[in-house]
Design brief:
2 copies of one chain form a homodimer. In chain A, 30% of the residues lie in helices and 19% in strands. Chain A is an alpha/beta fold and 329 residues long. Chain A folds into 2 domains: 8-136 and 278-327, Quinone Oxidoreductase, Chain A, domain 1; 138-274, Rossmann fold. In chain A, strands 1, 2, 3, 4, 5, 12 and 13 form a 7-stranded mixed β-sheet that branches. In chain A, β6, α6 and β7 form a beta-alpha-beta unit. The longest helix of chain A is centred in the middle third of the chain and has 12 residues, at 137-148. Chain A is globular, with a radius of gyration of 19 Å. The interface between A and B is large, with 39 and 39 residues. Chains A, B: Keywords: Metal-binding, Oxidoreductase, Zinc. Chains A, B: Belongs to the zinc-containing alcohol dehydrogenase family.
């Protein structure tokens, strides 16, 4: 139901489970009482408030994983995740008004003009998964590559073979990387990484992984390392892998730390940039490539379930039986 | 004395005391036995080894603060501080051969073709101080600005009003920054910062300092913050000052830590790049501006002493009576 003139009501056509949704699922982040969850969804505008200017009922829209107004200084700087009026899905906003979450049937979208991006048409069943990745994982992989400074001719290593890491492979190639080394120990994910443009696969981790990456590149580490996990080990592996003067682009939610080793960074001139991805900033650009078929990130979905089987969607990802689950009404 | 065919023998015309030289001076870093010190010097080539191709006796040369061969992959990447054959001044190299230090009369310079940069002429007394800054502080300030991504129109804050911080002000303006806020509590350093192009001065530190910087910029932090100190407090101030999506360029030698707060960086998308400055990489470019008079970084020297009064040169810097001391033979 519309509650503010800047709201839109969206009927959810597809949503998905994010790796970060697994934290409360696993109890790592305690949940005090039952609440709505999910921050990745696409759908059709059913109704708009009186103040909405750019959207109309019937349009197919993508909702990035955070609400943003698109007009504050931080949005204008392309950092929509730091929007002065930002809020998340499934919680109260700054004024205490509850925002719906994406794993449901209808969602009230605040600041609809800023938050939602209308697609050129309603995607068909083949295109739908790729459009759905624009809500989070494709934009997040892109943010990792962009933060690390990937460009034409770059040599890149990607740490993490989840949906974000796999999308980071796409993003790195899309930005012109010449070599993209995917670090993965799972055959099916290795295959998908190759399909997405990875030129090499390294199964080793830690020191051995860093050494294997250097060996592939003639003894010099990659220009950029995309850290798409968020653990102490994955960040250290990323820092150890990059060549002197290289850069780590990180988008893995830091799982309780650790802090970064500043003395190592000082000695090696390896920088660390990135963070929570402002996927809204690049959504139009990435959408154009999805609609043209230039990129097909939707292949990360290897499990599709109706919304009433959402429990299995979580379980399959938790047990690493699925890379990513898509939920249909 | 020439010991390898790639050596040059340089008669020191001027050298200086670096902030980092104060560490062993203060006993923060213990020194086991008397040793030569100093890594910032300029002079005249007296003799070259048989394998030296680009230098000849009589040339006036600048020695960056580290030895590098100029040909290894890291040098070609512009990260001469990670040269595969790098060594410092005043210690043994990889093969155990002792390298002279700069605060002396003559220095044997290893890998002379890679390490030394010949100036177009012998600088006169007015130009000498600025040429001397090319050995370290001007290049280090430049590295901070470059690592942070300063460019045309940037808003910049500089943390640290030592010689490096003051040179970082020059560097930021030189790269096109529109606003440069120097953080300093010392009247003479504030004045020099203004002379170097700082548009604003903030005397507050910590949270108050960060707030004062934001206030000057309409409530949004600077695009880049140049961290030229190296303490826990200065790095935290830098991270707290930058706008979301901004970047800290750090060149202050980390004084025993701390580690960087990765969760804060994740939430704000403030990146951290920089490290020990490969001043060799940009020496020709900066030298051109010194010789043309476009920049006059030599003003950071506010104390000139003969080499035999080196003890006072250290004491004056240690007690913050001098920004930076220049030593003449």
């Amino acid at each position: 139901m519309i509650q503010r003139p800047t709201d839109a009501l969206v009927r959810v056509v597809a949503s998905c489970v994010c790796g970060s949704d697994l934290w409360p699922y696993r109890g790592v982040r305690p949940t005090a009482e039952p609440r709505r969850i999910g921050h990745e969804f696409v759908g059709v505008v059913e109704e708009v408030g009186a103040g909405v200017r750019t959207l109309r009922p019937g349009q197919f829209v993508v909702a990035p994983f955070m609400v943003s107004d698109g007009t504050c200084p931080h949005c204008r700087n392309g950092v929509h995740t730091s929007c002065e009026r930002s809020s998340g899905w499934g919680g109260p906003d700054a004024e205490g008004l509850f925002t719906d979450a994406g794993q449901g049937e209808y969602v009230r979208v605040p600041l609809a003009d800023g938050t939602l991006v209308a697609m050129p048409d309603h995607p068909d069943a083949d295109l739908l998964p790729s459009v759905l990745t624009l809500t989070d994982v494709m934009g997040t992989g892109h943010h990792a590559a962009l933060s690390a400074g990937v460009g034409p001719g770059s040599t890149v290593a990607v740490v993490g073979d989840g949906a974000v890491g796999l999308c980071a492979v796409i993003a790195a190639r899309r930005l012109g990387a010449e070599r993209v080394i995917a670090m993965s120990r799972h055959a099916s994910r290795q295959a998908l990484a190759r399909e997405f443009g990875a030129t090499d696969i390294v199964a080793e981790r830690g020191d051995e992984g860093a050494a294997a990456v250097r060996d592939l590149l003639g003894g010099v580490g990659p220009d950029q390392v995309l850290e798409c996990v968020g653990t102490k080990e994955s960040m250290q592996q990323a820092l150890d892998s990059a060549r002197p003067g290289g850069r780590v682009g990180f988008v893995g939610v830091p799982a309780g730390g650790p802090e970064l080793p500043v003395s190592q960074m000082f000695a090696t001139n390896v920088g660390v940039c990135g963070g929570v991805a402002p996927v809204r900033a690049h959504l139009e650009e990435l959408a154009a490539d999805v609609w043209s078929g230039a990129i097909v990130p939707g292949k990360v979905f290897d499990l599709v379930l109706p919304l009433d089987q959402v429990a299995e969607a979580y379980a399959a990802m938790d047990e690493r039986r699925a890379i990513k689950s898509m939920l249909l009404p």
